[in-house]
Amino acid sequence: MTSTQANQTHNGNDNLRYARGLAKLQEIDGEGGVKVVESLADIAPDFARLLIEFPFGDVYSRPGLDLRSREIAVVAALTAMGNAAPQLKVHIQGALNVGVTRTEVIEIIMQMAVYAGFPAALNGLTAAREVFAMDAPQGEPA
After folding, report:
1. Cβ atoms of residues 142 and 131 within 8 Å
2. What domain range includes position 139?
3. Are 22 and 38 in contact (CB under 8 A)?
4. Cα(25)–Cα(98) distance, rounded to whole angstroms?
């Protein structure tokens, strides 16, 4: 195989990863995820591409866990980090999009107080409140 053929194969695989990742991102996060990627286009387009290819094209697309379970894990991890509120909000919305209930989101965040501390859980609850307020169904309080 020549280096040109290897490069074309690599690019073809990257294109598949990108397409698979973009589809998975849209399935989970809808417009919120796409906006995050678009916000990087002017400053770090290569990073935006990697953000789609690796987490969503490679990891989220793996068999073994359904999207609901993956989003529960992500909400827990981002809450525990305590310093990723923008990403946590996107993934709380993603969790809601794939069938996690508001009650479950709150319980996941509260559980993190045991392992990550009350400040991290409080930050998580604040993020959840903001997401719930933006996503309040008609007639249901945020």
Report:
1. no
2. 65-142
3. no
4. 12
